[in-house]
Protein: SDR family oxidoreductase
Amino acid sequence: MDLGIKGKKALVCASSKGLGKASALALAQNGVDLTICSRTPEAIEAAADEIRSATGVTVHAVACDITTPEGREKALAPFDAKIDILVNNAGGPPPGNFRDWTRDDWIKAVDGNMLTAIDLIKATIDGMIERKWGRIVNITSGAVKSPIAILGLSNGARAGLTGFCAGIAREVAKDGVTINGLLPGPFDTDRLRGNMKIQAEKAGVDFETFFAQHGAEHTAGRFGTPDEFGQTCAFLCSAHAGYINGQNLLMDGGAFRSTL
Ligand code: NAD
Structure:
């Protein structure tokens, strides 16, 4: 299917690997020119090379911390903030016990997983409105819908972003701009593997066996693949998805039990 977005310009944040990179690649496969970013120059250059040689689109690789104002300025610079598609993403806050979290821990989480995305939306949305076309996808977490206590920092910050976007999505729809959340369940990325390695070590069991067992026990009998996530993200950014707005799509293989 032609997604109808060839020639559009996108900023995909936190995208040297994992879900961000998969989303960037899926957009590039549909002819979208990109800015991608992550903190390490080597990693983001390598991802950009891979996407360029696989698709032939223009890829600007920016080494920056997207959670800082300077980082966001650098990430917006290649397209002079005139982007058609914004995919918000950043590393998630660490797990823990809420009794241990200080005010600084909360500020860092809210900054990284709520205010960063809001700032990028603020910097780009009026241009989208003027051009009468725009797509914003926030990569958040299944924990927004089905919270996990040890991920309290993530639950709180991401719920804040979701609430903010629920309001503005209704304001911009008439100008051809949509804002949606894409909520990952467990996807086989370095982050998931890293978290499970810690759990396996704590349980004193072999990581590969632990990982395979958890995948097999999942409702879908496996973890999600980054490609499945990226292709779904690209569809939400497509011409065909113009009437999907203000939604939060849970991608967890059906693990969350609800009728609707
Ligand atoms: P990942 O660790 O595989 O990749 C994260 C990417 O973000 C990397 O490219 C990293 O360099 C980049 N990054 C991190 N912090 C950054 C920053 N401050 N500035 C610029 N780049 C930064 O992680 P992932 O699994 O792709 O997860 C992406 C997001 O989705 C995270 O917020 C994570 O919490 C959330 N999430 C993931 C899962 C999952 O199962 N993978 C589930 C729920 C939520």
Summary: The radius of gyration is 18 Å. The CA atoms of residues 219 and 244 lie 26 Å apart. The chain has a mean pLDDT of 97. The chain is about 45% helix and 15% strand.
